[in-house]
From TrEMBL:
Domain RCK C-terminal per the UniProt entry, residue ranges: 135-217
GO MF term list: potassium ion transmembrane transporter activity
Domain RCK N-terminal: 1-116
Keywords: Ion transport, NAD, Potassium, Potassium transport, Transport
Species of origin: Haloferax gibbonsii (strain ATCC 33959 / DSM 4427 / JCM 8863 / NBRC 102184 / NCIMB 2188 / Ma 2.38)
Entry keyword annotation includes Transport: yes
InterPro entries the UniProt entry points to: K_uptake_TrkA (IPR006036), NAD(P)-bd_dom_sf (IPR036291), RCK_C (IPR006037), RCK_C_sf (IPR036721), RCK_N (IPR003148), Trk_Ktr_HKT_K-transport (IPR050721)
Name of the protein: TRK potassium uptake system protein
GO CC annotations on file: plasma membrane
């Protein structure tokens, strides 16, 4: 599959590397020449320019892309990139800060395929560490879905497994991973679970106990 990633900061660069390691074709767009140079040094096709501009996205190959990720720290650029991506029948994923008011979120959510909140994942990991717990339901995302974090103890069934291979079935999915005392990020395909790691999960509200059993025994 082909992806256009707008923004080569912490979130965008990590996402681009994950996609490439899984064998996908990734082109990066950023309006910062140093970030574009870094992306090229790391082996990516990269375009310098405003990712919310059609000519720039066309140069990045949006016409043949399967999905566009607006992953900069600027929601206006992200939204514009996603709206242009939809015109080319791309799946659209938009990064947003959780500080935005509910009505702004709802406006964005109606127009893009998925919204992600990197700050919320970081906060989830921090809360788990501060509370000293190993399984915490952070909050409801919808009436059916809940964001949950897990700290993996010694002897848990998932220790030694690749994060990408953890199968929760219809009960949920692993959304992010972090080593002890490190922030959560999108896991690389080769990442293996170790004791003390943290996992962020999207789970069905009525499936928390089943998920806990699968992960922790």
């Amino acid at each position: 599959m082909k992806f256009v990633i707008v923004g080569y900061g912490r979130v965008g660069s990590r996402t681009a590397r994950v996609l490439r390691e899984e064998g996908h074709d990734v082109t990066v767009v950023d309006n910062n020449d140093k970030k574009v140079d870094r992306a090229r040094d790391e082996g990516f096709e990269a375009v310098l320019g405003d990712g919310g501009t059609e000519s720039v996205l066309r140069e990045a190959g949006v016409e043949g892309a399967d999905a566009v990720g607006g992953l900069t720290g600027d929601p206006n650029i992200n939204f514009a990139a996603c709206m242009l991506g939809k015109e080319y029948d791309c799946r659209t994923v938009m990064r947003i800060s959780e500080d935005y008011r509910q009505e702004i979120y709802e406006r964005y959510a109606d127009d893009v395929d998925e919204i992600i909140y990197p700050e919320r994942l970081g906060a989830a990991g921090a809360k788990t560490a501060l509370l000293g717990g190993d399984f915490n339901a952070i909050g409801d995302l919808t009436d059916q879905l809940r964001l949950t974090t897990v700290t993996v103890p010694d002897g848990a069934p998932v220790v030694g497994d690749h994060v990408a291979n953890i199968d929760l079935g219809a009960d949920g999915r692993v959304y992010a991973h972090g080593r002890e005392r490190e922030p959560m990020t999108i896991p690389l395909p080769g990442t293996v679970v170790e004791p003390g790691d943290q996992l962020a999960l999207l789970t069905e509200r009525n499936a928390l106990e089943r998920v806990r059993s699968k992960l922790l025994g």
